[in-house]
Amino acid sequence: MGAVALVSLVSACSPDPEPPPKDLPARVFWRPDDQRISLHAFGFFGGTFEWVGRREVLTGEQLAALSGLKLIPSADDCWTDITEYSLVVVDAAGQEREAMAREDNSSCGSGRDVIDIETLKPLLATLECEATGFSSTELSKAKTVHADNGCQHAFFSYVDEPSKWLKVVASRPDRSHTFQVSRCEGKTTGLALFDESGTVLLARGSAEGTSSSDCATLTHPLEAGRVYALEVTSRAVTTGGHVYLEIRGD
Predict the structure, then answer these.
(1) How many helices (H) and strands (E) does the chain have?
(2) Strand (E) positions, the chain?
(3) Backbone phi, then psi, for 114, in 5-degree steps?
(4) Does residue 220 carry a pLDDT above 90?
(5) Beta bridge partner(s), residue 242
(6) Whole-angstrom Cα distance, residue 105 to residue 110?
(7) What's the predicted TM-score (pTM) here?
(8) What is 139-249's CATH topology?
(9) pLDDT of residue 20
(10) Residue 75's closest CA among 108, 97, 42?
């Protein structure tokens, strides 16, 4: 009887198990057998674009940045009107994994895995994608991009939206390149390709946006070592928002 009482007393006085630490070891998102990654950025006031990278064309800098992506517990806060990134990777077996990143490191109740935004920034720094709200109306301040860089550049489309400029470098020198706008239903779109100075017109394409596939497109050969000026026009008729632009070597 005394032994039973002693055991009960010891159990009653024993400290409760310690709760698990809040700072759990970070998990990596990109794995050695992953073959493809897609990134969709969305910002209501700007910052929208898409990018796809296949392992065989990723640079060493991009592979290092991907290896540094860390999954963390979601923060409690949920800020509004900030840029959100959705990432999907596909491994060698064709299996997909998804995660997200936000400036506040939260999932906003979505239940998805969260990537530490600080570990995503090195990858973002390697991308040449033009995002909504950042494109220039002046050629002298335009962003320089390479064709076939995996980007779907994005441009706002509102009534009386001014034309924007990009500087383009060939990915496959001395071959035709295609400039293709997408997601343009309800928007008039136009593309005009110039020499580097923006004064000599080389090719032009336009569309009225009567359907999602009725989008501006043009094809023109690009020479090695030259920079070209591209004027992008997208204006809302019945539908606002944004359009995407892909530039690829044929």
Answers:
(1) 3, 16
(2) 27-28, 34-42, 49-54, 70-72, 84-91, 96-102, 113-115, 143-146, 151-157, 164-169, 175-182, 187-194, 201-207, 217-222, 227-236, 241-249
(3) -115, 130
(4) yes
(5) 156
(6) 12
(7) 0.86
(8) Jelly Rolls (2.60.120)
(9) 38
(10) 108
Separation between Cα atoms, residue 212 and residue 197, nearest integer Å: 32
The residue that leads in pLDDT, 109 or 129, is 129
Q: What tokens appear for 10 in the block?
A: 């010891």
Per DSSP, the three-state class of 22 is coil
CB of 74 within 8 A of CB of 86? Answer: no
Bridge partners, 176 (sequence order) = 221
Asked if residues 113 and 207 have their Cβ atoms less than 8 Å apart, the reply is no
Residues in the chain, overall count: 250
What is d(CA 79, CA 43) in angstroms, rounded to the nearest whole number? 12
The residue extents of the domains of the chain are: 27-124, 139-249
Which residue type occupies 229?
A
Backbone angles phi, psi at 233, to 5 degrees: -120, 130
d(CA 193, CA 202): 5
Q: Which residue bears the tokens 């009887």?
A: 1
Confirm if 188 and 207 have CB atoms less than 8 A apart: yes
> 136-193: per-residue pLDDT in tens?
999 999 999 999 999 999 999 999 999 999 999 988 777 899 999 999 999 999 999 9
77, 110 in Cβ contact below 8 A? no
Q: Is 62 left (phi over 0), alpha (psi -120 to 50) or beta?
A: alpha
